[in-house]
Specification:
Blueprint (H helix, E strand, L loop, with lengths): L1 H16 L1 E2 L10 H12 L10 H21 L6 E4 L2 H16 L5 E5 L4 H12 L3 E5 L9 H7 L4 E7 L11 H11 L4 E5 L18 E5 L10 E5 L25 H16 L1 H19 L5 E3 L9 E6 L4 H10 L2 E2 L13 H5 L4 H5 L1 E5 L6 H20 L2
Parallel strand pairs: 1-11, 3-4, 3-5, 5-6, 6-7
Antiparallel strand pairs: 2-8, 7-8, 9-10, 10-12
Helix pairs in contact: 2-8, 3-8, 4-5, 6-7, 9-13, 10-13
């Protein structure tokens, strides 16, 4: 019995000493989301397409979840389509949107910092003969809406632009881009990848009048495997999947009610606490930045006017994966960039004109609402230790 209690204590200690600073890759599922998901798995487990009461109960959960997301965006519930995640949402918007509107042109304008789930579909379309125009940041590291607008012509079928960059936290001027594109070519579709911004920053259709907006659950404390796509009323697109006609045939397949309920609960939590979380992130960001600037070998890659829950830095002379694994040994978890890049050199940092050495030594810190200043103190202390020990062993 004593041994059992000792092992239990060790397990609890490990949980409490873990410092997770990779929330842009994925987040820990919050309790409201867990409770909502478990209730659906254990009680409301009917098929939403079934005609009996349990099916109707499940359908009502899906309907209410769409209303929750619609309220967050300021749109109608009929504009919300549930998907398996950001990758499917982005692919549906890009490939489905182009397939239904190919007559409107062969040019697609995008930023040079998009996520792989946008870049790869665009590369597929390039192979089909489409012209892909990439807009890059200016010398100050910021994107200009004018550069996107100037790239649009009468032959432009779509503009793809992320809301918040997942590696640096830069906020792109999506509202200005949309307004300018609408004036220049009304037929041009506009897709916004809002995965790193939805639920964390204000995002309303009244100011971001896009045709498609992609969202993801596991970036905001919901389970993995659930996402959503906003589709503007009247916007044509062709579904990627075919089958039983669920969600009006726009995204077929039996809806995952537990994941949808969990997503809805997480969205509600984030929307209710957005101002408090935002203030918390800002305090953490400034605190961490001030500590990092005291270290001679550290450079900050994130812009000052970016989001305050992502901070990208480079450590001179130590490759990203080496520092990442050093910190991992101390139960501190960070990222070397986008989790989907699998260690490849960052095209995002490359587009900023940073040196290869600075790109290869970059790591990303990203906060959640549970992150504390003590977590950051421990991280900075271990980072300094890593710099001292790793450079000495070279």
């Amino acid at each position: 019995m004593a041994r059992h209690n000792f092992l239990f204590f060790i397990t609890i200690l490990e949980v409490w000493t873990l410092i997770y600073l990779d929330n842009s890759s994925t987040t820990k599922v919050c309790k409201p989301s867990i409770d909502a998901s478990v209730a659906c798995m254990s009680q409301h487990f009917g098929n939403p397409s079934s005609l009996h009461k349990m099916g109707l109960d499940a359908e009502n959960i899906v309907t209410e979840a769409k209303k929750t997301l619609a309220k967050a965006l300021g749109c109608d519930a009929s504009n919300i389509l549930f998907t398996s995640g950001a990758t499917e949402s982005n692919n549906t918007a890009v490939l489905g949107g182009i397939a239904a509107n190919w007559r409107n042109g062969e040019r697609i304008v995008t930023s040079g910092q998009e996520h792989a789930s946008v870049v790869e579909p665009l590369e597929h379309l390039r192979g089909q003969g489409y012209e892909i125009i990439s807009v890059h940041p200016r010398e100050d590291g910021h994107f200009s809406a004018d550069d996107f607008i100037d790239a649009v012509d009468e032959n432009t079928v779509m503009v793809c632009c992320m809301f918040v960059n997942n590696e640096t936290g830069a906020i792109l001027p999506v509202s200005q881009i949309i307004k300018g594109v609408r004036k220049k070519n009304k037929k041009t579709l506009i897709h916004i990848d809002a995965v790193q911004g939805f639920g964390k920053l204000p995002l309303k259709i009244s100011t971001v009048d896009a045709d498609f907006i992609s969202m993801s659950g596991h970036k905001i404390y919901a389970p993995k495997g659930i996402g959503a796509l906003y589709i503007k009323k009247g916007t044509k697109f062709k579904p990627l999947l075919f089958g039983g006609g669920q969600q009006l045939g726009q995204r077929v397949g039996t809806e995952s009610v537990p994941l949808i309920a969990g997503f809805s609960a997480a969205v509600s939590m984030c929307m209710e606490n957005m101002s408090r979380y935002t203030a918390h992130y800002a305090e953490l960001y400034e605190y961490l930045k001030s500590k990092l600037l005291e270290i001679p070998d550290v450079s900050i890659n994130s812009p000052d006017d970016g989001v305050k829950y992502i901070l990208n830095l480079s450590v001179k002379g130590i490759r990203s994966e080496i520092m990442l694994h050093f910190l991992e040994q101390e139960e501190i978890y960070v990222s070397s960039g986008s989790a989907c890049s699998k260690g490849a050199r960052s095209h995002v940092l490359s587009s900023l004109g940073l040196s290869e050495q600075r790109i290869d030594t970059a790591i990303r810190i990203s906060f959640c609402y549970e992150t504390t200043q003590n977590d950051l103190d421990v991280f900075v202390a271990r980072l300094k230790q890593g710099i001292d020990s790793l450079i000495k062993t070279k």
